[in-house]
UniProtKB/TrEMBL annotation:
Swiss-Prot/TrEMBL keywords: Signal
Name this protein carries in UniProt: LacI family transcriptional regulator
Family annotation (Pfam families): TctC (PF03401)
SUPFAM superfamilies: Periplasmic binding protein-like II
Keyword Signal on entry: yes
Family under the similarity heading: Belongs to the UPF0065 (bug) family.
Top-level lineage group: Bacteria
Signal peptide limits: 1-30
UniProt keyword Ubl conjugation present: no
InterPro entries given in the database record: BUG, Bug_dom1, TAT_signal
Length: 328
């Protein structure tokens, strides 16, 4: 018996030593992170909202870290192509996903080549921006209650635009449909620009437009703001009520961007990257550039961001089920 025990212990010692060595190596590796350029994959086309924000933040990250932070665009399939690429990447902290609200919407609408909950580690929410429910300047609707009254009086006749099936613009309107018990028709477009043009012209009744792309049209009188989707009024539109203030309780929808690492990334690397993002977002020059795009810096902790992403996916799953939303 004693001999067997000694033999077992002898076999275990090298394994324990190897594990200890690997742990020490991983910790030492994380301590020096980043030691080489970081690639941030943006799963959308260059020049879009997420890409513009990512480039501003990446510049700040590079200056904080003393390493290059390179943006690589891998667009397509509502962001899932780029996300799948990062999910398969080595989890060493040098391939990072910079995704948007679609990260929480895609899993409840589409069959994906990855598991959003199991294949990624949330690192930090970078920015947020509310949506503005807009209508044509000559519209008979002056506020959200006007629109709700008209929608209830004409079920199935009023329309809402979006920049694509499954987009946050659609989901915000679908949430309004659910919570206000409305019957409206979805009119999807292949981008935000054509959606705004048709709303301006009155071809579509309303649109939950990203504030970063629509605020100038509102302040310039080319669009009429009926409500804002966030829980607080926008400082730029102090006289425009929130959806919640119009009586739709607990309505708080914002577009967001955030950083993710592939599953398997060490807690040390996650913490280092989180710190890097937070320091970049704290820089006055970074904040000023983001503000010009209408974006609010966030810089949340990995733990808080994970809870936020999970809550977002749960909410949109409920909306998809209740409204029986399907996309091709």
């Amino acid at each position: 018996m004693k001999k067997t025990r000694r033999t077992a212990l002898a076999a275990i010692r090298p394994l324990a030593a190897a594990i200890g060595l690997a742990t020490a190596f991983g910790a030492a590796h994380a301590a020096g992170y980043p030691e080489q350029p970081i690639t941030v994959v943006v799963p959308y086309s260059a020049g879009g909202g997420a890409d513009n924000a990512a480039r501003i933040i990446a510049q700040g990250m590079g200056e904080v870290a003393g390493q290059s932070v390179v943006i690589e665009n891998k667009g397509g399939a509502s962001g899932s192509i780029g996300a799948a690429f990062v999910a398969r990447a080595k989890p060493d902290g040098y391939t990072v996903l910079y995704d948007a609200s679609s990260f929480s919407i895609n899993p409840v609408l589409r069959k994906l080549p990855y598991d959003a909950k199991k294949d990624f580690v949330p690192v930090s929410q970078a920015v947020s921006v509310p949506n503005i429910l807009v209508a044509a300047p000559g519209s008979s609707f002056n506020n959200l209650q006007d629109f709700i009254d008209a929608a209830r009086a004409k079920p199935g006749r009023l329309t809402f635009a979006s920049y694509g099936p499954g987009s946050l613009a659609q989901m915000a309107a679908e949430l309004l449909k659910k919570d206000a018990n409305l019957d409206m028709v979805h009119v999807p477009y292949k981008g935000g620009a054509p959606a705004i043009v048709d709303v301006m012209g009155g071809q579509v009744d309303v649109y939950f437009a990203n504030a970063a792309s629509s605020l100038n049209y509102v302040t310039g009188g080319k669009l009429k703001a009926l409500a804002v989707s966030s829980s607080q009024r926008m400082p730029e539109l102090p006289n425009v009520a929130t959806v919640g203030e119009a009586g739709i309780k607990n309505f708080n929808v914002v577009e967001w961007n955030g950083f993710f690492l592939p599953a398997g990334a060490s807690p040390e690397v996650v913490a280092k990257l989180q710190d890097l993002v937070q320091k970049a977002l704290a820089r006055p020059d970074t904040r000023e550039k983001l503000a010009k795009l209408g974006l609010t810096p966030v810089g949340s902790s990995a733990e808080d961001f994970a809870k936020f992403v999970d809550a977002e996916q749960t909410r949109w799953a409920e909306v998809v089920k209740t409204n029986n939303i399907q996309v091709n």
